[in-house]
Write a structure and sequence with these properties.
The protein has 347 residues and is of the alpha/beta class. The protein has a domain of 177 residues: MTH777-like (Rossmann fold, 3-Layer(aba) Sandwich), CATH 3.40.50.10160. Strands 3-2-1-4-5-6 form a six-stranded parallel beta sheet, with helices on both faces. α3 runs antiparallel to α11 and α5 packs across α6. The chain is flat, with a radius of gyration of 42 Å.
Length: 347
């Protein structure tokens, strides 16, 4: 008698695998591409086989108005690319008169700007600027420096800010040289030493003993200041700053003292953000911008009360205003005169 499998083992018996349904013959087989041999892929839509210009006329109708606008645009483009057209009917005398007018304007501005700069030619049109209270404190501090005292001057600006900052630097360094201080120059700007050297070269003569040492650029921004203070001897620091950030770096790194160790010459844009350090006595004194630089040098006796640079600026600006007004009046009077150009415009 054949042995019987237990019921629990019978349940584990694998079932017969039913054959899968044959693929439908109506489904096409891909014959090329990455889907080659695959049956039943999505069929290509008929719209993809439509020609590019289907439903669009390949011979558009252009109206006369459109042709006229296209012609006008083509004329403008051609005129812009062509050489400048000379004024028709302009005689040689008229050309000479136009050149004379331009030369006259140039000479008036040049004379107005240069004349006040000559020695003894100051007209006194602009009053001498007064040094601010903070600037006066800085002047008194430098004026109290003894011969041989070491002063650290930080030229924290570059050539792009030099027109304004050089005026401050010249005033301060000139005063330090007059007091026979020993000056060390550093900068937290890569281009700062070059800007400092330009100022130094303009102040130190070839025969005078050089008491200025250009230490150079110190990388690291605020982190470089402790290294500078530990390696460069100084009794006080004068910061020449075009932006308020460098004033903040020096004020945060220098210890508080009475009198303060830090003094500053800053640009006009750096003044508002630098004032809190002056109020808190972290900065002992401050001069600001070109007006304070001129007032400082005036106090040093380098200018007479006329203040030639300010006279030059004032007279040149006044000459420009007069020429502009005069040109406008002449244009109003003669603008409608019967010239060849006006006649052409009327047509």
């Amino acid at each position: 008698m054949a042995a019987q499998l237990p019921s629990w083992l019978e349940a584990l018996k694998p079932k017969a695998i039913e054959p899968t349904a044959a693929p439908k013959e109506e489904e096409p087989v891909e014959l090329e591409g990455i889907l080659e041999g695959v049956r039943g892929a999505l069929p290509v839509a008929d719209v993809a086989w439509q020609p590019l210009g289907a439903g669009i006329s390949m011979r558009p109708q252009i109206t006369p108005d459109e042709l006229a606008r296209a012609g006008a645009l083509q004329e403008l483009l051609a005129r812009g690319a062509a050489t400048p057209v000379r004024r028709e009917g302009e005689s040689r005398a008229q050309k000479l008169w136009g050149g004379t007018q331009r030369l006259f304007v140039f000479l008036v501005i040049a004379v107005a700007a240069i004349l006040p700069l000559f020695p003894g030619a100051s007209l006194g049109l602009v009053g001498a600027p007064q040094l601010s209270e903070a600037g006066g404190k800085m002047y008194e501090n430098i004026d109290g420096i003894k011969s041989g005292d070491r002063v650290l001057v930080a030229f924290d600006y570059d050539a792009t800010q030099a027109p304004e900052m050089d005026a401050l630097a010249r005033a301060v360094v000139r005063h330090l040289l007059a007091r026979k201080a020993r000056v060390s120059v550093v900068s937290l700007y890569p281009a700062g030493p070059a800007a400092a050297q330009v100022v130094i070269n303009g102040l130190v003569s070839g025969t005078a003993p050089i008491t200025i040492t250009n230490v150079g650029y110190m990388p690291g921004q605020s982190t470089a200041i402790p290294y500078i203070l530990g390696t460069v001897p100084f009794s006080q620091v004068i910061e020449l700053a075009a932006v308020p950030d460098t004033v903040r770096w020096w004020a945060e790194q220098l210890p508080r003292s009475d009198p303060p160790l830090l003094w500053a010459g800053v640009s006009a844009q750096a003044e508002p953000m630098s004032q809190p350090y002056l109020t808190s006595r972290q900065v002992g004194g401050m001069i600001v911008g070109v007006p304070d630089a001129i007032a400082y040098e005036l106090k040093l006796g380098l200018f007479k009360p006329g203040v030639a640079p300010l006279d030059s600026i004032a007279i040149a600006n006044a000459a420009l205003i007069v020429l502009i007004v005069l040109g406008g009046v002449i244009q109003l009077i003669l603008g409608g005169a019967p010239t060849p150009e006006n006649e052409r415009r009327r047509k």
